[in-house]
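ARCHIVE CARD
CATEGORY: sequence design from structure
SOURCE FIELD: tokenized fold
FIELD CONTENT:
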């Protein structure tokens, strides 16, 4: 993609919601630095990109005032986090943990992430796990010279492998 300002190769992708409308900007590193997008304070430079007045410097959302804290590692303040909506360094997560915990439910469906695995992949993993277990049992049956059990295990493995191929093709 090319920079919206100078047509150089874009490396910075900036999205802003203003008056309920989503606006996207694609900029090269130089233009992004020039407009202040890459600095924590520069994200409030909407007037430069959009024209008009900058957004007010108030906390986002109905969060109660918390005593001003600074991140000991980078010096980022709680007010900076509220203005910018992002953190300065990994230690900020600990410094501003109470504020983050307050914001998570409104930003996501829940405060914890349980992940998502496609249904077909879950079935495939279950089949692979069972195949591993049966293969171990087959080796043990062969080493103990229980050939009838080994033949039954071989047949179950064969059937599962066919089933796995069917699931993988979905």
């Amino acid at each position: 993609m090319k920079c919206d300002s100078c047509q150089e190769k874009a490396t910075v992708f900036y999205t802003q919601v203003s008056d309920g409308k989503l606006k996207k900007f694609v900029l090269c590193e130089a233009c992004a630095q020039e407009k202040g997008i890459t600095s924590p304070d520069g994200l409030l430079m909407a007037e430069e990109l959009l024209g008009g007045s900058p957004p007010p410097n108030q906390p986002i959302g109905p969060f109660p005032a918390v005593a001003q804290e600074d991140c000991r590692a980078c010096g980022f303040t709680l007010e900076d986090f509220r203005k910018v909506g992002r953190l300065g360094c990994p230690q900020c997560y600990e410094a501003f943990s109470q504020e983050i915990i307050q914001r998570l439910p409104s930003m996501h469906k829940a405060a914890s992430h349980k992940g998502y695995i496609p249904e077909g992949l879950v079935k495939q993993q279950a089949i692979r796990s069972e195949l591993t277990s049966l293969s171990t049992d087959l080796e043990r049956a062969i080493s103990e010279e229980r050939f009838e059990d080994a033949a039954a295990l071989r047949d179950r493995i064969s059937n599962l492998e066919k089933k796995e191929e069917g699931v993988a093709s979905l």
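CARD ANNOTATION: Helices lie at 29-35, 46-50, 78-84, 92-95, 97-107, 119-143, 147-168. The chain has seven helices and two strands.
SHELF: design records, drawer C
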